[in-house]
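Holo model, adenosine-5'-triphosphate. Inputs:
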Amino acid sequence: MDLNIMSFENVTFTYMPDNESVRPAVEGLSFSIKQGEWIALVGHNGSGKSTIAKLMNGLLFPQSGTVTAMDQKMSEESLWEIRSQMGMVFQNPDNQFVGATVQDDVAFALENNGVPHAEMVQRVHESLRQVKMEEYLNHEPHHLSGGQKQRVAIAGALALRPRLLILDEATSMLDPQGRMEVIETIRELREATGLTVISITHDLEEAALADRILVMNAGHKQVEGTPEDVFFAGNKLTELGLDLPFAMRMSKLLTEAGVQLSNEHMSEDRLVEDLWTFYSKK
Ligand SMILES: Nc1ncnc2c1ncn2[C@@H]1O[C@H](COP(=O)(O)OP(=O)(O)OP(=O)(O)O)[C@@H](O)[C@H]1O
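Output:
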């Protein structure tokens, strides 16, 4: 049977339970994530994404409904066991460094967890290799780019061998190059290890690579489906204040201008391929 990595069943959380005029940050939310899936959680500001992240790692507990992680109900008792199987990477690359060098940084949590020295060295190398940062082992963090810093943060999480990696707006402070590096790292990691990934993001280009997208609006799940399902319901996203990926917007404009594409494309590569075909027939 598939391991249930994370599920919410009818979860409601409000920051001000005594004030009935304040709407819950998350209301009646249900979803379930299986081992090996990549889920993107998207929604505009205030839609409930950060609250969901906090409910996922037990920083908050719902007033009603159930959060289950790694097949265990989230509670004060199960919290530490659950967290030990979950890696998190946050928004600001500069707030996450604790070591003086890249390898010290990745080793930090391992040391705290009492991992023996020889195994620690091996895990530090292995996880830095997975994010292609092994050659930066002895570099000081402030000399790295934003994308490289986030890749080291991912390595730090991977060194603990989590079942689930949660990226909480991990690309939102990066320049386009840094974003691409991190997204590519996640894509490769998933291919190589089958790691389960939840990425909380404003970036629909990033979400387009996920297996499934969950769109939040005002504390409710508005749409859920594959990137195709979600993006082809295009107007709904625009109404929720979310931009379609660039390639889809471009596809729409080209179609309106009379260019006969085979489809609306989610990726720039496929759009370019289609345009080659279109113009080579002319
Ligand atoms: N600590 C808090 N106390 C009171 N209300 C809060 C608190 N944190 C969030 N909220 C409210 O809960 C709702 C959901 O906020 P949340 O931060 O989860 O959304 P978000 O989608 O992560 O937004 P953003 O992208 O801006 O971080 C919003 O109405 C917000 O104002």
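DSSP finds eleven helices and ten strands in the chain. The beta strands are 4-13, 26-34, 38-42, 64-69, 72-73, 86-89, 164-168, 196-201, 212-217, 220-225.
Archived with the compound record.
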